[in-house]
Amino acid sequence: MPAIARIDHIPPAHTVFPPDSHPDLQQPGSMHHGWNTGRQLLLHAAGSPLANPMNAQDQPRRQQAIAQLRALSPNLHEVAGPLTLALHVSALQQPSPDTDTLSLAPLIAEALADLGDWGIRAPLPEQLELITRSVHVFTPCMPD
Cα(133)–Cα(36) distance, rounded to whole angstroms? Predict the structure, then answer.
């Protein structure tokens, strides 16, 4: 597996969570949709050519999320690891929109366990707030 060192390296859900890896993943569900939605938001925020065009009905909410993601860091590629952790937490665990950093710690640990093979390492203490703020951006865009 290639390491996720840039936003462009974040793979689609079926690559990270292949159907044969767990019985619950045999059919795409909200977790897959959430991962792919968040991935697209990150691709748009980073200005990646891999970003797909947005659906007009989702555009206002997603445009707001993209602007908020851009405001998190002057170079999103430099924080691809923490943003991937936030994406995982948002798509898989779907915490409430007001979850604080301390409450996210066990969810981040679970994300690390799942994403370690992708080169994602434990975030630095100063990156925990970035992860929390990112989760707050992703959460309203996740499917029900």
Answer: 19
